[in-house]
Fold this protein.
Amino acid sequence: MTDLTRFTIASAREHLRKKDFTALELTDAHIAAMESNRHLNAFITETADLARERAKESDFRIKNGDALPLDGIPLGIKDLFCTEGVQTTAGSHILKGFRPNYESTVSQKLRDAGSVMLGKLNLDEFAMGSSNMTSYYGDVINPWKARGHSADLVPGGSSGGSAASVAAHLAMGATGTDTGGSIRQPAAFCGIVGVKPTYGRCSRWGVVAFASSLDQAGPMTRTVRDAAIMLNAMVGFDPKDSTSANLPMPDVEAALTKGVKGMKIGLPKEYRPAGLNAEVGMLWDKGAQWLRDAGAEVIEIDLPHTKYALPTYYIVAPAEASSNLARYDGVRYGLRVPGKSLDDMYAKTRAEGFGKEVKRRILIGTYVLSAGYYDAYYLKAQKVRALIAQDFEKAFGKVDAILTPTAPTAAFGLNDKIDDPVAMYLNDVFTVPASLAGIPGASVPAGLTAHGLPLGLQVLTKRWDEETLFRVCQVLEDSAKFPGLKGER
Amino acid sequence: MSLDKATVRRIAHLARIDVPEADLDPMVKELTGIMNWIEQLKEVNTDAVAPMTGGTDMKLAWRKDAVTDGAQPEKVLSNAPDKHDSFFSVPKVVE
């Protein structure tokens, strides 16, 4: 029998409707793959029984001709989305045993579209990391290996479980969240597509908050078309999130065939610092040539405040995180460590419940917001953030889309010691500026290094212009003919 | 820019995170490293720049000031580490 984990969402959808196989068979194949790949540690919680139940419901609807847009499609949900009755950890010890009584808007929408949840995916603790090495539930292993080497590699982060599960064909797609690159960078490291839509497209309601002015959910899939299908189901106005956009969403799946003829594409010169990895630079040039070949005009542009984006992010994000994470106090849910007084209980609970990186960011955030430092750091960062957003606005006066590398390197080794936090933060140097500006961005797998590891190219467009984003991504995908982990998609 | 031990102790207290005395020195070093790296923002002239305070330029929507949810004490308390009737229990606060 054909391996049912080989299909894309788009093709599986057709086969299900033609009744070539059932949703239950498709789900069972993915459950088997999930269970035989536990060494990747991609899932924190597997929900096989629930998945089979939902697959049967899908089969019933399909049989009756009432198929929903994602009926019977097995997906993984990043364990940052609250799921009703299913443990939700955010990769942290402090949420020990937490079972939400509600479903996040995004996971509810995916459920309402008929998709089947396979389980909850591993991530960096509270989505703070670029390697998935800060999870309380252990490291996720990238299913890719360097050619001729057996060393385990990181999947990137924070959506590391999402990226690994989709790349290894355990799930057909997964939700991710992106605060400074947490969808795009792991997508690049694992050779899949990752899309961060415009801030405000996907409701943040029920998503464990990291930095509220930056957090945005998006799809992670093996093809651009699959990302479009998933994103169409995830977006929409939600009165429960005050920053949710009440704007129509373009049909990004319908836009895929429109091409880039006549478009202007910008290459920001600040993204090519001296010392840029040669393979990354070469792939970027190749990507630009693919777009030229498809009829686009490619020009150099300036984004002069690029170098300040990371330090700005490391004020804004920790400041917001320190406020958001104040709620974990051992009173209402999760871990509680007894103390002599209420304050002592808070301090002991938070000392034991939070990991090292989370504590580090809470302390930075507390410091930059504290009396006497607020103007010097937080307000200053908000002003530089405005300049970074203006850089993009000016650029989009000249170009329709921007092309850059997604990450400065391919996936690194799980055992490559990165002790310096700032060195780790540099992984997000190309993704953070767009997060600060709130614009949409996507990573498309575009090539392999000499060692056979995936590299991604990033596409950015102006706010609310996901249509152009997907058009460019589709051309890159068609030109790159990226093989995928299993040599086919 | 250099943080000292007393400052780190103070912010750890503000953040309600117990930091053992032995961990303070490495933490001072790490946080100082990060803050020094952040200092480069001082080079940027932001005199006439309005701060960007959110992820979007949309105006916040208005809604009716009405009760839309509530009266579900069992659900609210279902994850409580310690509870008493329909209350969360905590160590004694008032003597």
In short: Chain A has a mean pLDDT of 96. The CA atoms of residues 2 and 21 of chain A lie 10 Å apart.
